[in-house]
Design brief:
alpha+beta; three-stranded mixed β-sheet; Phage tail protein beta-alpha-beta fold; globular
Length: 344
């Protein structure tokens, strides 16, 4: 955010969510807890909310979490004290000092409770998708895992690391929902029963073909290896792109791209446990590699984030890939307990 960004980060503690939009929503949530009736704050919040539908969706998720009893207890723990009864004039200075101490203690306690609220929200924001995924997914992979799955119609699915799908093959349907991550589909031909894959923003319809779908929260990417598929946006429906082998298309909340022609060896390298990239910013490369690493990988500094790199790395040893990339850009790697890596 820019001019309509809340300035209460110090009150909400030092927590920063990995998703920038959710981080902004968290900041606004805590800011409105502190000053719910301030007209300038409300106006700035409404401007932020209306600028992007994802802002409203993220804030509404937090509002739902805000109904948790634990969160209410944290945010309402420090309410203003009731007005003191009238006192004799001789004791007014002492009472005034007492009131000031009470007010100071309330403000400090309120800020502490805001930080507690932010922490509870952070935990809830992280746990809610995980719990939903566990309840919804038919197949999930752990960090660093890659698994091949035989589908009920004899089609084949390869599920990439930290990915999840839900299946619906009842009554002749062939429908897979990619809930998270990336998957490769090798579909058995059956013209009478089209095979559908839905992701965050897109739907792919095929009869018999091989393709990949990746969904990372902000966009979907579909790459066609062989056969033919049609890709359409889920909301609003209507826009459709037909792909031929070698095409790649991306779908977001706002648009469906024209087909691009990436190198198939690069687009499908993950199937063989490798990550191939050319002239990419280090930040984007680290974002991909950290999906295969069981602990956080933290990249420090804008100069490093924008450095352009190329490479071909094994995904079964992401720590080695990070160390090698750090050498390429002249960075240092500090390895902390539990596998946490700092690149600076």
């Amino acid at each position: 955010m820019e001019q309509d960004k809340p300035n209460s980060r110090q009150d909400a503690g030092a927590y920063r969510h990995a998703d920038p939009i959710m981080d902004e929503a968290l900041t606004w949530f805590v800011t409105l807890l502190e000053a719910p009736a301030d007209p300038d704050t409300r106006a700035a919040y409404q401007a932020w909310r209306s600028r992007d539908p994802r802002h409203a969706a993220a804030f509404d998720r937090l509002s739902a979490l805000g109904a948790m009893p634990e969160l209410q207890a944290a945010t309402l723990a420090h309410q203003p004290q009731a007005a003191l009864p009238p006192v004799r004039s001789s004791s007014r200075p002492a009472v005034a000092r007492s009131r000031m101490r009470r007010r100071s203690g309330w403000v400090g306690g309120w800020r502490a409770s805001l930080a507690a609220a932010a922490l509870l929200l952070a935990i809830g924001v992280h746990l809610q998708p995980m719990l939903t995924l566990r309840l919804t997914a038919d197949h999930r992979t752990a960090t660093g895992e890659r698994r091949e799955i035989a589908l009920p119609d004899r089609s084949r699915l390869i599920l990439d690391t930290d990915s999840a799908v839900a299946l619906d093959f009842a009554e002749g349907r062939r429908h897979v929902r990619l809930l998270r991550g990336q998957a490769y589909f090798d579909v058995v031909s059956d013209p009478a029963h089209p095979f559908r894959v839905t992701a965050g923003f897109s739907e792919v319809v095929v009869t018999g073909t091989a393709f990949t779908v990746q969904s990372d929260g902000g966009r979907d990417a579909v790459f066609l290896e062989r056969g033919r598929v049609s890709v359409s946006r889920r909301e609003p429906p209507g826009q459709t792109v037909a792909l031929v082998p070698g095409d790649r298309v991306t779908a977001t909340a706002d648009s469906l791209s024209a087909p691009a022609r990436p190198d198939p060896a690069v687009a499908l390298a993950w199937k063989d446990g490798r990550y191939v990239f050319h002239d990419q910013p280090l930040a984007a490369v680290v974002d991909t590699i950290r999906r295969y690493h069981t602990a956080p990988v933290i990249l420090i500094g804008d100069r490093l984030a924008g450095a352009r790199v190329s490479g071909n790395y094994r995904l079964d040893d992401p720590a080695a890939a990070i160390r090698s990339l750090a050498d390429v850009v002249g960075a240092r790697v500090t390895e902390l307990p539990a596998g946490i890596m700092l690149v600076r």
